[in-house]
């Protein structure tokens, strides 16, 4: 699991299961956080120049866009499977 430098991602009492490995990013480095790139892709492809009549309409559109993204594994892989992330998981 990739974590950014946010303070709420640190807790001494957190028990990390054996099957989870934490990869902490340097502070103030959103460009290294793959989730930031997911949001960029989502904004660019699903929300470009759109105006919504209501918050419910926006939420419906977001749900549909996230479902589409979830079903397109190649797209997600191209955005988040950077060599340094894959290498850190293999070592």
Describe the protein.
This protein has one domain. Helix content is 49%, strand content 4%. By secondary structure, it is mainly alpha-helical.
Main β-sheet, in a few words?
2 strands, parallel
| Overall outline | globular
Uncertain spans: none
Give the amount of beta strand, in percent. under 5%
Number of helices: 4
Structural category: mainly alpha
Strand order of the largest sheet: 1-2
User: What percent of residues adopt helix (DSSP H or I)?
Assistant: 40-55%
Q: Let me know the average pLDDT.
A: 86
How many DSSP E strands?
A: 2
Estimate nothing, just give the exact number of structural domains. 1
Radius of gyration computed on alpha carbons? 16 Å
Please specify the SSE layout and strand pairing:
Layout: E1 2-3, E2 23-24, H1 34-46, H2 55-70, H3 73-80, H4 83-90
Parallel strand pairs: 1-2
Task: Name some characteristics of this structure.
4 helices; two-stranded parallel sheet; mainly alpha; 91 residues
């Amino acid at each position: 699991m990739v974590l950014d430098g946010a303070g709420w991602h640190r807790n001494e009492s957190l028990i990390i299961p054996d099957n989870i490995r934490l990869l902490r990013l340097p502070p103030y480095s959103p460009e290294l956080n793959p989730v930031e790139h997911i949001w960029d892709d989502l904004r660019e492809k699903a929300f470009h120049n759109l105006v919504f009549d209501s918050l419910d309409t926006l939420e419906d559109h977001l749900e549909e866009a996230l479902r589409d993204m979830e079903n397109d594994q190649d797209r997600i892989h191209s955005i988040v499977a950077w060599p340094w992330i894959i290498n850190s998981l293999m070592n």
